[in-house]
Amino acid sequence: MNFQIREAITQNVKGDSATDFRSTVEDAISRGDEHLLPGLGVFLEKWWQSSSATEQEQFTEKLSQAFKN
């Protein structure tokens, strides 16, 4: 992913509340537009970088389960 996209997304949501982030994620998912996927990817990257090894393990376990079906 291009660094400029990361920076643009970061600047666009800087200062957003937890409620704002939830609304953004839910809106992106409900729309199903693929052009919104890079933004969700930036969110995941930021979360991953700030999460503990335990949180990362729990997340990857949930992903593994979600993609088994």
UniProtKB/TrEMBL annotation:
Give the GO terms filed under biological process for this record.
Answer: asexual sporulation; sporulation resulting in formation of a cellular spore
Q: Does the record's keyword annotation contain Membrane?
A: no
Q: Indicate where this protein is primarily found.
A: other
Q: Show the Pfam families listed in the entry.
A: SSPI
**Which superkingdom heads the taxonomic lineage of this protein's source?**
Bacteria
Q: What induces it?
A: Expressed only in the forespore compartment of sporulating cells.
The protein's location, in the record's own words, is: Spore core
Q: Does the keyword Ribonucleoprotein apply?
A: no
What keyword terms does UniProt attach to this protein? Sporulation
By sequence similarity, the record places it as follows: Belongs to the SspI family.
Which NCBIfam families does this chain map to? SASP_sspI (TIGR03092)
Recorded protein name is Small, acid-soluble spore protein I
Natural source organism: Ureibacillus massiliensis 4400831 = CIP 108448 = CCUG 49529
